[in-house]
Design goal:
Blueprint lengths: L7 E6 L7 H11 L7 E8 L5 H16 L3 E5 L3 H9 L5 E2 L24
Parallel strand pairs: 1-2, 2-3, 3-4
Helix pairs in contact: 1-2
Length: 118
């Protein structure tokens, strides 16, 4: 997706019910229709307390997005939800956080005097 194309935003609300998962997956597929490797932003601030139902929903949305050639990015994610996703082995890009393996802006590596170059 190029910088001029805005990401689609889905506002997820809780509590997560199992019968709603298929509808959310359909919304992700529709948002990514046409390919191009788009991003769907999921605003998860309204999901409520993090739990396994939220983890299951987000895992299914990410799988759906990847199958459609896109990705999911989280907005307003509770740190407890991010931790729970990590425990489940799921990593999502969250708005306001640097991408994996990318140092935060303004951070420079310190060099000790007397260290050999290399």
């Amino acid at each position: 997706m190029d910088a001029k194309t805005p990401a689609v935003v889905l506002v997820l609300t809780g509590p997560v019910r199992r019968d709603e998962v298929a509808g959310w997956c359909a919304a992700v597929r529709e948002a990514l229709a046409g390919g191009g490797g788009g991003v769907v932003v999921c605003d998860v601030g309204g999901l409520g307390p993090p739990g396994l139902a939220a983890v299951d929903l987000l895992a299914r949305l990410e799988l759906t997005a990847r199958r459609a050639g896109g990705r999911i990015r989280l907005r307003d994610a509770d740190p407890a939800l991010v931790a729970l996703l990590g425990l489940a082995g799921l990593r999502f890009q969250a708005e306001g956080q640097p991408e994996e393996r990318e140092p935060p802006l303004g951070v420079e590596e310190a060099v000790e005097t007397g260290d050999p170059a290399g």
